């Protein structure tokens, strides 16, 4: 291990004007550290032993990593400050083997740091603007309707809304249908994929408890001391509290539910879920497979001898070219929530991102159209609507006015013969 550097480090860099610029920094004996020291420059609260778990090889790699980040900072790379880098950042950097991967992670963390600094600056500016507003004295008979002043409505705090949603989730734990999120794929994902997966799991919990009829969600195979658990813990700090309506288990779902009721949802199987079963317990694999396209969920379901099914996406949607058919975990939950309450796949599949869908297969025919079609019983024709599908019915024109406008302007609607559609 290097105990001192007898010479300064000089880095040559070409600027925009192609003129060389010299960045020099000399390490003094106070800044260099021996093998027994456990402090980090400009971050006194960081403990090496908590990061490396007392492993001497990781301690050596950590000190080399400190020198590497300092050299990158001198080269002009976008590296965050040591004060911003926390223990979980250093743990992620220690798990990366290549220098390019560590640099990408540092640049991403740098952008996060600058974004937070910008948000903090905007908050301070708004706070100053609110303080500089001229106030009208109430002695003149004028009431002040503003923040922290008079208001005609009672303020509903965020904590009150959270308590309402938590109570709805508690009701689902007693009377709602159960659903399982299989979190046993953390070893098959990279650091970034684990972080994205934890973010999707946070959305799953948030969007499920806001629904009118939420699921009783079980997070199974959630191992402690993993990137997935630590990242989810930062988003939901109270997830381990006994009063919090979140079911997190390290054991398998086979130990909690009868095997004959379990149905594993995997896009790689042949069975299609045409009819929703309200008595089944569906399992969703918590995996972000951007770099690993292998059918891991299919292999796991076959190994455990579980029933399998996939959503009828190809029957109701036409995928755009170049987009994958994989859906986020929170999108699958939203689809299942709507199909459970409505039984309409056309309505439930609206949660599929529009960037992935080229056209929608309508109920009226087997031909795929990008717009919505309505059937006119008198003329026996389909009419392609130009207005948005969410337009209220009371805003639509009457039949007589619509037929009159079609005679004056042929661009309002396009008449399509029903026989031609069925023949195609």
TrEMBL record:
One of its GO terms (molecular function) is methyltransferase activity. The gene is LOC108745241. Its main location: mitochondrion. Keywords: Coiled coil, Methyltransferase, Mitochondrion, S-adenosyl-L-methionine, Transferase, Transit peptide, tRNA processing. Residues 165-359 form the SAM-dependent MTase TRM10-type domain. It is found in: Mitochondrion. One of its GO terms (cellular component) is nucleoplasm. One of its GO terms (biological process) is mitochondrial tRNA 5'-end processing. InterPro entries: MT_TRM10-typ (IPR028564), MT_TRM10-typ_sf (IPR038459), Trm10_C_MTase_dom (IPR025812), tRNA_m1G_MeTrfase_euk (IPR007356). It comes from Agrilus planipennis. PANTHER family: TRNA (GUANINE-9-) METHYLTRANSFERASE, TRNA METHYLTRANSFERASE 10 HOMOLOG C. This is RNA (guanine-9-)-methyltransferase domain-containing protein 1.
